[in-house]
Amino acid sequence: MHGPGSQLIGNTDSAEGTQTFQAFNPQQQEWIPQPFREATAEEIDRAVTLAATAFSTYKKTAASQRAAFLRAIADGIVALGDELINTASAESGLPLTRLQGERDRTTGQLRLFAELITEGSWVNARIDNGTPDVRQMQLPLGVIGVFGASNFPLAFSVAGGDTAAALAAGCTVVCKAHPAHPHTSHLVAGAIRTAAQKTGMPDGVFSLLHGATIATGQQLAVHPLLSAIAFTGSFRGGKALYDTATRRTVPIPVFAEMGSVNPVFFLPGILQEKGETLATQFLQSLTMGTGQFCTNPGLFVTQAGNDAFMETLQKNIAALPAGCMLTPGILEAYNKGLGQLQHAGARVLGKAQAASHQAAPALLQVSVQQALADPALCHEVFGPSSLHIRADSPEELYRLAAALEGQLTATIHGTEEDLRQHAELVDILREKAGRIVINGFPTGVAVNHAMVHGGPWPATTPAAGTSVGTAAIYRFCRPVCYQDFPAYLLPPELQNSNPLNIWRLINGQFSKDALS
Amino acid sequence: MHGPGSQLIGNTDSAEGTQTFQAFNPQQQEWIPQPFREATAEEIDRAVTLAATAFSTYKKTAASQRAAFLRAIADGIVALGDELINTASAESGLPLTRLQGERDRTTGQLRLFAELITEGSWVNARIDNGTPDVRQMQLPLGVIGVFGASNFPLAFSVAGGDTAAALAAGCTVVCKAHPAHPHTSHLVAGAIRTAAQKTGMPDGVFSLLHGATIATGQQLAVHPLLSAIAFTGSFRGGKALYDTATRRTVPIPVFAEMGSVNPVFFLPGILQEKGETLATQFLQSLTMGTGQFCTNPGLFVTQAGNDAFMETLQKNIAALPAGCMLTPGILEAYNKGLGQLQHAGARVLGKAQAASHQAAPALLQVSVQQALADPALCHEVFGPSSLHIRADSPEELYRLAAALEGQLTATIHGTEEDLRQHAELVDILREKAGRIVINGFPTGVAVNHAMVHGGPWPATTPAAGTSVGTAAIYRFCRPVCYQDFPAYLLPPELQNSNPLNIWRLINGQFSKDALS
């Protein structure tokens, strides 16, 4: 790269912007020399317009072609080798091993979506062949604006789950790179471009735009040819996009994953049984990746009889290693968040030592009464801290659970007896979270068919979506019904002979049979 | 009923409002004597609060219990007999036979949803039984606010498709009756109440509120315990609810079906083959129910060679019978809409005679250039009028199709040769409409598994939903994931033994098998 980094608009580099920004190395505490240009309004328009043109071709590709494209992206990411991992580590401060794992997750996601669309039943074909003859399937929405996340520079960024799901569905993508890792984004976008060229995809099926200001994202969000937005990040950022998108002349859906506090409930029996072990495991989950997971357990609730558990927590928290955070801004927000909690009446149970550029793991505490009176106490503080609340009775526990906002996850630790006695807790939590975990920890989100990474507001914008797992594809689709179509105009998925051999709902019955 | 009509809040009548309104008989041109009370803010709050309490019980009912409830509603509607049909006819001006058919459709919908949930596979159970073990299914959203439509006093109103789908999913319902037919609404709500009591459903599973002002609907829409809104009506009404719901502190989804012009494309070959027949059929579709269908063909496009077709249209339009409309307000809007079209440059091709209280079927015409320059020409005028546009070439036809807004339906008439030659038209229209019809007419929406009654904005708010057919149930659900749950805490749909014998996606494969 010569001169500041450019936009990748389809197959063409574009370097029209004069405003530049730099990434920061949080481990080394220094700016990374090579700057990147902010995309201009014209470049944003060009990327979306090209993506809309590309969509008219790309939407007609066979699933096998799109699968080859996704697999070529995965291969290309692997081929980037250590350069990608080193670059991502320099820009995020995340350890190499973590990023190697994240790369596997990223390529695994791409291959899983390739497999999904190759099998083909995901289109939810429905046929009622009476009078009239009506046939329905899921079709791609159009151009998707993907906003990369700061905390997963690979798996939730340029070629992350949103991009993989959108491309799998048959949508084209304009990605806004997270400004914390432009070099990583540039490398991955290059791999996508090469894969698109190798597999014969239309120019503009994917574009990458850079920008460190709010303007870039907003200009993308209001573009009339954009069909939907996928975002992973802060509540503030997601809400701003949601407000913009819902106020357009033609509103578009925003699938924003905005994080949560992921409450963990420890029931009395299990704390008595293995309080110390759970305390150790909890601190591991809390401080993994310096607490920078959307599913980080930022709130935990106990109910009586938890002396060993609380003692272990308090004893061990001080000795935990501090870590650097993704960006100076995120570290500042973490420290500010802790200060606000204390100002609002939270008591510090324990805190680790940390250098000024690091985040100190911390445990705080409030009473049930405080939490119920001031919902802000239960808002997310992104980083390695958790707020403890002690309930005096099951009823108090339920009241607290019922007062929670929407969450990505909610977790219960309990013995069989605990769980049977607190069955109502599951009932309450299923209204609060997209995923309920029993005797585990919320960090670590499996990528498969059954995963839900989403939840009621403010965890995500529409609770009907997931941003992890194969069901994520449905965010970028809508059903279309073909009435009384002659055979030669029907897509293969809906033809009588079922040439793709997919599962279909025929007059209400699942079947792979052909129709005569 | 003594005194003004009341709200039905669960099992209790409530008559606190002092403001009243009356329905109007559009055939007789007279006010219907018995007034109805506007719901007060307190009554609205009470209905939603009771519905939220009822939800905590109702969500746990077995599908078989909810199916019995839905069937009891259908039976109750049938048992209302002629009184219901006569009342609906008086309030809507719709003929008795049409309303008898609509009653069948309404009870048919209720029974279809009963069947769907009895079979059970609709919950989309997904199981990945690795490490971790994650299991997903669709769960009900909560309390749904249903806004009845004016044009289907039975099938899209109190016990219409929205209510049936929401109750089937396990949601509770607070319905805002359309003020044009409060007596009809009261009768149907009474049948729902009786059915709920007979089948042991919780008090508040359904409530009916009345209101002729915008305030009632707005107060319902902002209630913090409401989870989603379903609406069928005008763009203005739907958009107002959408704006309110998306600006709440906790935004909620709005599934608004706001109508469209349902363009019909007549290709040259078929017009040559049977132009006169098509002209007659088109006018039938246009004037059915005085043009008061969401799927009424308000726009039609021809391309050359259409003399007999256009002549037949122009010859026959003048002789078509005028009809009364649902309300004086709707008639006024129709006449105003026609005036605006003419003012904007549309030429009147022909118009029937009509008394002052009736709507005259009308055909208007603009050029492609006019339509492209002024998109307002292609906006819906609710009633029995249609706007003709003549394209001079396939390219002009495509340009016009590509410039259309989102639609519920789009229709093409063509011979096999026409359709093969204009394949691009299907490609364009699939981005524009929820349903594409070949050689048929858009009016008449089949209720089955494959139907889509929805479409891109402004036809509906989110294009991912349908308000007709069994897929309508998904608007009122969200996926929830159970991670590492012990067997005794799992819902039956996700238990290893598959006690409900439903189709499930097991590690990516559809199966009815039990897991060991």
List keywords for this structure.
seven-stranded mixed sheet; 516 residues; homodimer; 15 helices; 37% helix; alpha/beta
Protein architecture, described:
Two copies of one chain form a homodimer. With 516 residues, the first copy, chain A, is an alpha/beta fold. The first copy, chain A, has helices at 41-58, 63-79, 81-92, 96-119, 161-169, 182-198, 214-221, 235-246, 268-287, 307-317, 328-343, 368-373, 394-403, 416-421, 423-429, and strands spanning 7-9, 12-14, 20-21, 24-25, 30-31, 36-37, 126-129, 133-140, 143-147, 172-176, 206-209, 226-232, 254-257, 264-266, 299-303, 323-324, 347-351, 358-359, 362-367, 385-391, 407-413, 433-438, 477-483, 504-506, 509-511. The first copy, chain A, has a seven-stranded mixed β-sheet with strand order 2-1-11-10-9-12-13, with helices on both faces. Chain A has a seven-stranded mixed β-sheet with strand order 17-19-20-15-14-21-22, with helices on both faces. Chain A has a five-stranded mixed β-sheet with strand order 23-8-7-24-25, with no helix packed on it. In chain A, strand 24 and strand 25 (509-511) form a beta hairpin. The radius of gyration of chain A is 24 Å and the shape is globular. Chains A and B meet through helix 4, strand 7, strand 8, helix 14 and helix 15 of A and helix 4, strand 7, strand 8, helix 14 and helix 15 of B. Strand 23 (477-483) of chain A pairs parallel with strand 22 (433-438) of chain B.
